[in-house]
Amino acid sequence: MAKDTLTLTDNRTGKTYEVPIKDGTIRAMDLRQIKLHDNDFGLMAYDPAFTNTASTTSRITFIDGDKGILRYRGYPIEQLAEESHYLETAYLLIHGELPTRPPLHEFTHNITMHTLVHENIREFIDSFRYDAHPMGILVSTVAALATFYPDATNVGDPDSRRLQMHRLIAKIPTLAAYAYRHRRGLPYVYPDNDLAYSGNFLSMMFKMTEVKYRPNPVVQKALDVLFILHADHEQNCSANAMRSVGSSRVDPYSATAAACAALFGPLHGGANEQCVRMLQEIGSVAAIPSYLQRVKAGAVRLMGFGHRIYKNYDPRAKVIKKLAYEVFDAVGKNPLIDVAVELEKIALEDSYFVERKLYPNVDFYSGIIYQAMGLPMDMFPVLFAIGRMSGWLAQWEEMLVDSEQRIARPRQVYLGSGERSYVHLSERG
Ligand code: ACO
Predict the structure, then answer these.
(1) I need a surface site. Which of 63, 132, 308, 310 has the fewest CB within 10 A?
(2) Is the distance from the beta carbon of residue 357 to the nearest atom of ligand 1 less than 6 Å?
(3) What are the residue ranges of helices labelled H in 34-157?
(4) What is the pTM of this model?
């Protein structure tokens, strides 16, 4: 009769072990009983880069990479992008359910009331070099927030956790916009709490001398959808950083700074910037075939293509491609879209990409939209971080309340030298 177990035979000893299978996994600790002798440490699983290791159970985000499915708390991303707005989606990710009107109103009020940052933070941003990368400023200022909220160390208190979450979701657009304005040498714009979340961000970014900034409704809506699409993506590099650093029970500002730092990398949140640079380098439809030759020769990667999880079209890329044309209708076309669409078409018919199941990911089209909105390339990962904040916080809290979680501490397979005696400098050949 079928059983939910796995039988393993250790051919070194001839012994057989039976380990339970639950939710499609075996427990790595069940391997530890497999030993050569009593003093043996026991068998471990070796999995650099966590390619086949579940580090947690989660109820937040579901991805089926083969089918191209992404759901937050069970709701398909396409429906959320179409029907929801960012703060409602943030509430959903954190609380697990779509809110009714009163809690949504309260949540929105709480976020809106925390958009200001301490004036010292503004001065702190002033002290960065004029050309500092805004993501570097963001990483530092998010970490600096910890020094303003010493109560945030109380991570075991649900009320304190909620308060820090409101602060972080509220303040990250302000920090992001200040980083941008510093770079441009423009005066900082204080939050306008009459505006919606993404509209306020646009105001803090682009307001000049006008008394009141009125965001373009198409751009405001598109930005809001982009925040939704980026809000969570289960155990990716930055969520893993958030959980891992947060598992030491550090305050959420420090953990979020680590997550932002992870997102800064070109293989993660930096990919959309790299993607636009790549499209600019290609420059024209005619130059695509020769560029793809270089990709296939391993000289360069096709940025915005490929994904560890999606072996099918990234559902976010589909929504973003459609969104691109709506934004272009409102603010003018970004000519790079022609290169991108043709590049995608040629790549998806090429056996190199087909065999490796490499499809456009979320970053392939997002940068082109950001650019059309007037956002400079080095702000792209910063925008990603604004959207992802709610997901990081949901992941962080889920980790903290999970009784199975402890401080994250991976094992290693040591392959270095055995014990040897120190040799004085004068005696080393
Ligand atoms: N261009 C060309 N070849 C690629 C690409 C690419 N973008 N991505 C993967 N491949 C190839 C690899 O060379 C490898 O080929 P091989 O088997 O002949 O050696 C094969 O596909 C598998 O690639 P891996 O690097 O093992 O895939 P992995 O899952 O580790 O990497 C990653 C995923 C990092 C996203 C990768 O596809 C990549 O570098 N893409 C470009 C950067 C990018 O767009 N990142 C954004 C990801 S989405 C996000 O973070 C929001």
Answers:
(1) 308
(2) no
(3) 77-83, 86-95, 101-112, 119-126, 134-148
(4) 0.94
